[in-house]
Structure formats: structure tokens, C-alpha cells
Design a protein that fits this description.
Length: 138
């Protein structure tokens, strides 16, 4: 059965490289409080990455690099239809104390292994594995 795509979103995997190695920033979802990555609808005047970067600011309070790569896509079936989500990377350069959804979500830095255990969306877990491998090689 082929799923028809009704709408699109984009997401970003925020990361930083520190002395301990790679760290991934996860945030809680609004309703169920699962660990997820920032994502949202692609705004008509922005590219998918620009929209995802804007979500990272609004939902997680982070600013980052414009250098990115798309790590993959996946589909989510929602009550309003099937959504195709494009996922990008973003190296975090600044963590803000004040941001739009500060009081609505928690945010936490994880090692890649911890992030794989915590993430609510398995497809994102696979993309975190890919990012970890890519950055270890670089």
C-alpha cells in the first residue's frame, strides 16, 4: 500500500563536538513529553533547512551553522494525513537562556548512545547513528 503524502515538515538534529566527543541535543514533545528533535512545517518563504533551523531556535533555544547535510527522510502517519519529514544536521554554536518555547519543553544534551536509547522516533535514531559515524571519520 502506497501512502500519499499530504504535507511536509523538516527537522534538525542539533549537535556539538566537545572534549568528550559528539553530543546530541534532544527536546521533549509538547503533549507526551517524549524525547524528540526540533521539527515543524516548512514555511512557504523558507527552505526546508531554514525552517528546521528556525524550529531549533524556537523549540530548543539553539543557534547553529548554515553548513548542513540532509541525513534522511521518513514518514509519519498523523490524524490529518501522512507527513514526509526531511531531517538535517546543525552544529550548535550558541545555546540561549531565553527562547520562545522555554517554558513548554525540556532540553538535554546526550551522548549518541544515550540519544539512541531516549529518542521516541526510531528513524531519527538511525540518523543519529549515521551522523556519529560521519563525524568520527571526519
Amino acid at each position: 500500500m502506497k501512502l500519499e503524502i499530504n504535507f511536509s515538515q523538516s527537522a534538525v538534529i542539533p549537535y556539538r563536538l566537545c572534549k568528550k566527543g559528539l553530543e546530541i541535543l534532544l527536546i521533549t514533545s509538547l503533549k507526551r513529553k517524549h524525547w524528540i528533535v526540533p521539527k515543524g512545517y516548512i514555511e512557504f518563504n523558507l527552505t526546508p533547512f531554514e525552517s528546521a533551523k528556525k524550529e531549533a531556535y524556537e523549540e530548543a533555544g539553539v543557534l547553529g551553522s548554515n553548513e548542513t547535510f540532509e541525513v534522511g527522510t521518513f514518514k509519519l502517519i498523523k490524524p490529518i494525513g501522512t507527513c514526509l519529514i526531511k531531517v538535517f544536521t546543525m552544529e550548535v554554536h550558541e545555546v540561549l537562556d531565553d527562547y520562545p518555547e522555554k517554558n513548554d519543553r525540556k532540553r538535554k544534551w546526550f551522548t549518541p548512545e544515550e540519544a539512541l536509547e531516549a529518542i521516541a522516533i526510531p528513524e531519527i535514531g538511525e540518523m543519529i547513528k549515521e551522523l556519529n559515524l560521519k563525524l568520527k571519520v571526519a
